[in-house]
Amino acid sequence: MNALWLMLGTLTSVRVPAPTHVDRRVAGRAMVLAPLGGALLALFTAGPLWLAVDQDWGLSGFVLAALVLGALALLTRGMHLDGLADVADGLGSGRRDAAALVIMKQSDIGPFGVVTLVVVLLVQAAALAQAITMWWGPGALALALVVSRGVLPLVCTRFFPAARPDGLGATVATSVGTLGAVVALGLVAVAGAVLVPSLVDSFLLDGATLVRLAVACLGALVPGVLLALHARRRFGGVTGDVYGAAVEVTFTASLVLTLIAA
User: Fold this and answer.
1) Which residues fall within 8 angstroms of residue 147, CB to CB, at 6 or more apart?
2) HEC letters along 33-88
3) Which of 41, 75, 88, 213 qualifies as a cystine partner to 116, CB 3.0-4.6 A?
4) Alpha-carbon distance 66 to 62, whole Å?
5) Using CA atoms, how far apart are residues 202 and 204, in angstroms rounded to an integer?
6) Cα–Cα distance between 81 and 73 in angstroms, integer?
7) By the 8 A CB rule, do 196 and 142 touch?
């Protein structure tokens, strides 16, 4: 259970028992289970969103989308958004390796981080609002949450060494093997297959649409992995901030690509 408690305690604000033992093996298993953390977040947010849409609470799609994103920030302690802002500042500074890491570790957010947060949150809110008007909102949200957490085991494989000797990056970097990455993708598929049909009207889910959604999910993983590769080149490896940024980028890509697929 240590891997489960570590995953939930790291990726969500849900109160769970503290792991009794943490090593690289436990950390790797925790990252493999990350899609389940996305599924739990989906239950907390996509479920109420489905109820709001089904019962017609009289709120616009954009208001509902903004409330959902605010709830997600609370449920994740804003950790991924903070990572996105820090990575944007590090990349935007034009510096490399240790000099860029110093900028990322500072507590304040620079102009690159602010602009990136504003643009990403606007795209997320607009995409989710459009999905709500198309009756895809809850399903698109659930799928994006699961897929975005599914990028974590991919960027914890041997191709992404830690940039620092300490911190979250050093704990989980290169801790996931090939089999673990495959298992994680399987969890994404299973969670999506369970959540989406329960949150989307069946008449919207014909065979062709399901194939397009599967392709969209795979495509959404690409930007997050590419960001991690770019961070490895610029910073000499990945950090906890890079993991958070990869999650937010994948989440955004999933919402947009789901709209196209639908």
Assistant:
1) 35, 38, 188, 192, 217, 220, 221, 250, 251, 254
2) CHHHHHHHHHHHHHHHHHHHHHHCCCCCHHHHHHHHHHHHHHHCCCHHHHHHHHHH
3) 88
4) 6
5) 5
6) 8
7) yes
**pTM of the predicted structure, to 2 decimals:** 0.95
Question: Measuring CA to CA, which residue among 236, 75, 57 is closest to residue 149?
Answer: 75
The number of residues making up the chain comes to 262
Count of C-beta atoms within a 10 Å radius of residue 41:
23
**Token couple for 117:** 């947060």
pLDDT > 70: what percent of the chain?
100
* Of the candidates 221, 217, 247, the residue with the CA atom closest to the CA atom of residue 87: 247
Query: Which residues, in sequence order, are CB contacts of 57 under 8 Å at separation 6+?
Result: none
**Whole-angstrom Cα distance, residue 138 to residue 162?**
35
217 and 192 Cβ atoms separated by less than 8 Å: yes
